[in-house]
């Protein structure tokens, strides 16, 4: 599929394709053509031209999302191209913008917004090398530190110290880049490039380090906070976090697995949960909440009822919800506003079918994404499921991996899914009849790949044929056995893997020591 280009864009491509000529000629280019040339250079991966465009940027702002997004001259959105050559050229160009000795009166740039860059699984750039969120965090922090060292050592134009540019970025911090990011944030006041953290993700970090760095980010600006893998945050720490730091603009909150565990609750814990709910209620912008793999049985109301703003996204997968929890969700004011809902790991068809379908009917007019993985949905539930999904005409994504459904049932579901006009992505399970007889659900990781692959391929072809015959080539159907693509995990999986091995080794050593003492 080719996207139409205007004559202006074709001319811009021709201009930047000769890097040497383009770089020499930038001084004669009208300021309003810089955005056009930037997008053309990005498409052609002309790193040197990108660097010089940014180094000489003549406008007040530089917004990556807008520059690479759909424009009148070229409608294709390039913001999902995290091309390493292009992004490194951008960031080094930004550093050199500060160091460029041209008159500081010509320097108008005040805001650089890097938050519009989207990390996706499939890259279309020629170099095939990506620069993910972690690497962008690393490089920007490194450049800020280097810039300060250079300014302190070199004889710079006095006007250079007056340059102040806010760089909006989604930071991603792990143990490996922690020190570098901390140094950049500590020296923010002295640095012409000022890191402004809009979203913060933390993986593989001790609680002490997490608490320290989160305060450095200026939480009053934070819109999204993700505390994910290997950050051992429990409810008492969450209460401490909310008591010591205010997040007035926070719109999205992701908490790590096992933050809550009501099975161990004491009277003190109940009060703590009430306090956490009240603190979340003070976050008037909060519309997205993810609390997967916590045990929240019977406590959803206590946690969510203080919220004053309706949630648009809720992930309570594998949270051991009971009928009272589901009834609260179905009857709450959140239900009519939910655009994304994840109830994976709950036996919805057996435990609370009517309440679940009530919830589904309430959010059907706005629901865009529904995830029901490992929900024990069987062939006998398919008609009921179709009935519940029928009003969800805005549904774009439906994920139901890990359910014991036969090939025939999947064909029935796919025939129905063709009727949902906005649907773009479906993640479906390996049919039950592809696994050995007697397989039990949920299937453990060791057995998940032990199915008849040839039979699965035949069924997958038949399912895609159903889409094709209904003229729904726009729908992507897949079976990601180990979960959907996560750009952040993909980028840092080596570090996470090393951490898990280290943790396992430490546990084994403790066990051996205890065993020896007993002996």
TrEMBL record:
This is Leucine-rich repeat-containing protein 14B. Belongs to the PRAME family. LRRC14 subfamily. The keyword Kinase does not apply. The lineage of its organism: Eukaryota, Metazoa, Chordata, Craniata, Vertebrata. Signal peptide: none annotated. GO terms for cellular component: cytoplasm. It comes from the Eukaryota. Keywords: Leucine-rich repeat, Repeat. The keyword RNA-binding does not apply.
